[in-house]
Amino acid sequence: MIPLYTDEVGVLAEIFSSFQGEGPLVGRRQVFVRTAGCNLSCSYCDSAKSRREVKFCEVERDPGSGLLLRRNNPVTSSWANEEILGLWASGTHSVSITGGEPLCQPEFAAALARCCAAEGLPVYFETNGFSERRFLRVVDRIDFAAVDVKLPSHRACPPADWLRLVENELGCIKAASRAGAVTIAKVVILESTPIEEIDRLCPRLEGVEATFVLQPASGIGRPSPEKLMLIHQAASEHRGDVLVIPQAHKMMGVL
Ligand code: SF4
């Protein structure tokens, strides 16, 4: 039999079924495949565990049970595919390939997306968008793209690298939109976020077909209602569809 995809190996942190907690697809049931390792260091990061490479991939085969099965890393994309299919149930909307940062393992991320596409499962791909070139390897296999835009004050990278980072992020957003993926551009807002950074960013997204989401930070640095209103107003001067959506999975207490 001719295989539908090439098997690849990579490092995963978790596979589980839960509800999307961010952005316009909030509340949708998804199978999450969380890659391990990230190249950025955002001040608000809440994925400490998946920022580094981990020894085991943890799988919650019984959704919501908290019972985790461990599999040694690296794992193969065909093994991950079997776990995804085992978790796919009635009411599941899509497979969320997330991180960490999936584009740190571009071949593996592409293989995961290919596996899902071969099974007819819609793919929601979440990335910090650091490399447009790597993103172009997966964009044709995904149905939904959620791309972060980092502001200088997020301290995601050394200041000298920020311009290159944001150009890549904007490139990924435009590439996803051009490819016909439902595209989400997300910016995390902290109390310390300068309005001028939003003023400078938003004109770059004018005319791009993407849902623009301001996500208030949940923990330390959470913005005041007044700050959120001011930031929303500043963004809305450039786009008519600015949404403010908090992280709902933290309220639900799910993974
Ligand atoms: S890109 Fe995401 S995972 Fe990486 S440091 Fe920033 S918030 Fe954390």
Automatic annotation (TrEMBL):
<feature type="binding site">
    <location>
        <position position="47"/>
    </location>
    <ligand>
        <name>Mg(2+)</name>
    </ligand>
</feature>
<keyword id="KW-0408">Iron</keyword>
<keyword id="KW-0411">Iron-sulfur</keyword>
<keyword id="KW-0949">S-adenosyl-L-methionine</keyword>
<comment type="pathway">
    <text>Purine metabolism; 7-cyano-7-deazaguanine biosynthesis.</text>
</comment>
<keyword id="KW-0004">4Fe-4S</keyword>
<feature type="binding site">
    <location>
        <position position="38"/>
    </location>
    <ligand>
        <name>[4Fe-4S] cluster</name>
    </ligand>
</feature>
<keyword id="KW-0479">Metal-binding</keyword>
<keyword id="KW-0456">Lyase</keyword>
<feature type="binding site">
    <location>
        <begin position="19"/>
        <end position="21"/>
    </location>
    <ligand>
        <name>substrate</name>
    </ligand>
</feature>
<dbReference type="InterPro" id="IPR024924">
    <property type="entry name" value="7-CO-7-deazaguanine_synth-like"/>
</dbReference>
<feature type="binding site">
    <location>
        <position position="100"/>
    </location>
    <ligand>
        <name>S-adenosyl-L-methionine</name>
    </ligand>
</feature>
<keyword id="KW-0460">Magnesium</keyword>
<dbReference type="InterPro" id="IPR013785">
    <property type="entry name" value="Aldolase_TIM"/>
</dbReference>
<dbReference type="InterPro" id="IPR007197">
    <property type="entry name" value="rSAM"/>
</dbReference>
<feature type="binding site">
    <location>
        <begin position="44"/>
        <end position="46"/>
    </location>
    <ligand>
        <name>S-adenosyl-L-methionine</name>
    </ligand>
</feature>
<feature type="binding site">
    <location>
        <position position="98"/>
    </location>
    <ligand>
        <name>substrate</name>
    </ligand>
</feature>
<feature type="binding site">
    <location>
        <position position="42"/>
    </location>
    <ligand>
        <name>[4Fe-4S] cluster</name>
    </ligand>
</feature>
<feature type="domain" description="Radical SAM core">
    <location>
        <begin position="25"/>
        <end position="255"/>
    </location>
</feature>
<protein>
    <recommendedName>
        <fullName>7-carboxy-7-deazaguanine synthase</fullName>
        <ecNumber>4.3.99.3</ecNumber>
    </recommendedName>
</protein>
<comment type="similarity">
    <text>Belongs to the radical SAM superfamily. 7-carboxy-7-deazaguanine synthase family.</text>
</comment>
<dbReference type="Pfam" id="PF04055">
    <property type="entry name" value="Radical_SAM"/>
</dbReference>
<comment type="function">
    <text>Catalyzes the complex heterocyclic radical-mediated conversion of 6-carboxy-5,6,7,8-tetrahydropterin (CPH4) to 7-carboxy-7-deazaguanine (CDG), a step common to the biosynthetic pathways of all 7-deazapurine-containing compounds.</text>
</comment>
<feature type="binding site">
    <location>
        <position position="45"/>
    </location>
    <ligand>
        <name>[4Fe-4S] cluster</name>
    </ligand>
</feature>
<dbReference type="InterPro" id="IPR058240">
    <property type="entry name" value="rSAM_sf"/>
</dbReference>
<comment type="subunit">
    <text>Homodimer.</text>
</comment>
<feature type="binding site">
    <location>
        <position position="34"/>
    </location>
    <ligand>
        <name>substrate</name>
    </ligand>
</feature>
